[in-house]
Task: structure prediction
Amino acid sequence: MNLRVLGTAAFAVLVIVLPWLIPPFMTFEFTYVGAYTIAILGLVILIGNSGQISLGHGAFVAAGGYTVAVLLQSLGLSYAVSLPAAAIVCGIFGFGLGAIALRLESVYLALATFALAASVSPLLKRFKHLTGGVQGISMPSPHAPEPLRHLIGTETWFYYLTWGIAAIAFALAFAGLRGKVGRSLRAIRDSEVAAVAFGINPVFYKTLAFGWSAMYAGLAGAILAIVTAYVSPDVYGIPLSLTLLAGAVMGGLDMMWGAVIGGLVIEFLPLYAQRVNPALSSVAYGIAEIAIMLFMPIGIAGALQRLRTVRS
Amino acid sequence: MQELAQQVVSGLATGSIFASMALALVLIYRSMNVINFAQGEMAMFTTFIAWEFMQRGVPIWLAIIATIVIAFVGAVALERFIIRPVEGAPPLTIVIVTLGLLIAFNGLAGWIWGYVVKAFPSPFPSTPIQVGGVGFSAQDLGVIGVSLGTLLVIYLLFARTKLGLALRAASLYPEQSRLVGIRVSWMMALGWGFASVVGAVSGIMIAPVVFLDPNMMQGIIVYAFAAAVLGGIESPIGAVIGGLLLGVVLALLGAYVDAIGTDLRLPVAFGIIVIVLLFRPAGLFGRVQQRRV
Result:
């Protein structure tokens, strides 16, 4: 237990000092890592704990991004309003889809959410008056609030904002999953019939998990949209959903801090793979997913943890 | 009226592609209760192989036959090395493995052949065929003919041969089949082989229309999912009828309903999947399954 507290503290310190150790453009990349980590943490809650799969979380990332874009650009609201609004919109959207999802068994749910992922970009293109169609929506370049802008600069401000949100997301996930909610979710995952016999309401908990994870995906989408200052439909296709899932699988599907590993991999692997061949990262994701499922179903974080337990 | 007939035929042509891909999915679903998400990408990859043969001067029909052989052997090998180790695993694990195959095949095709869209020669003449005063595209009629022919061959294989009997027995009663000496696990591998062949034929048939690139099947596979769900994911005949129906409905919606047009065809497929799964999960032709605890 002490080791876990120590590890968390060390990680927090690392996150706080990192912007001062790396060149400014890397700060931007680590902001993306934070956003991806939040989205993947959502998948860890959903797949790892409630046993429901989603191949369509790109839809929630898109919903988060476009909510922020519309509120900021078309309605002129502030970041402080738009960001929570995006989380709430995506949470509600997720609850709605969760109500459908809980009626579908795993393979069918995978099918339906895959089709959802494929529908996102045609829908965004079709409803032009709201989404700007193929061109998307440009937003004003983000600025840090006045005193901070001169102290730490806008990049670093967004870095801290993102990782601050990530910290809250982790704290919520940790508190939620170790208590009654987490126990109920895992009981339903392992045997729904047995869980019902113990008085657990699967309808409530499964929709809760879906809404919860959709909210995280939406927050991630909102952050990505603000940092990029731009949203456009083609970013949110099937590849995004599958990449998020690949990140979750690589980190370890039921390992919370595996989400950080997943976030690091899906941000940096394509950047480095690009130097060899643009297609290399896809090949690597695919092979990694297969290899992990075949040889190491607990993911990278799970394997590291097991290594630690074996040693001690 | 004439336009309507042409729309229906062109809908049947794309529908027969959906039908074939849906049948490929059903073949694997019946043998192992899992959806092969990589089915479309495997079809795309084999289509590239056919293209490569033709680039090297192999006549088109010979290239198709060679590709079919490669598709069969390749898929059987894939099942043996990658799917076999997770055969008894939870469905979620197998789903993720097939998603890994999807991403890997897509990347591999991009790596080998690049992302530039390529023209793919049609094995059919380009002049329209006159039937009752209406000109139909030979491509459409050819695609319908070849697809239905392939489906017929698969049907005869499963219904009329001893191998087909073993394949069906292995998927319905694995334990009992093992007792009478059927090698159940190998039957799954053969199922993957036949599904891959059906996919390869569909890929080659649709490539002249949608052109060849690593993402050519990403939309089509979603329609195939919708077709399989609509027909009942356990029913081969359902998959075929579901595919043809979906093809015609989408063609008519695209031509006559402006609100949907061609933009919203994927969302329509998503809508069909959700509605069918919610209200009639067995599809139009599937049997309702009793769930055991």
Remarks:
- The radius of gyration of chain B is 19 Å.
- Chain B touches chain A through 49 residues (CB under 8 Å).
- The first helix of chain B runs from residue 2 to 32.
- The CA atoms of residues 75 and 246 of chain B lie 27 Å apart.
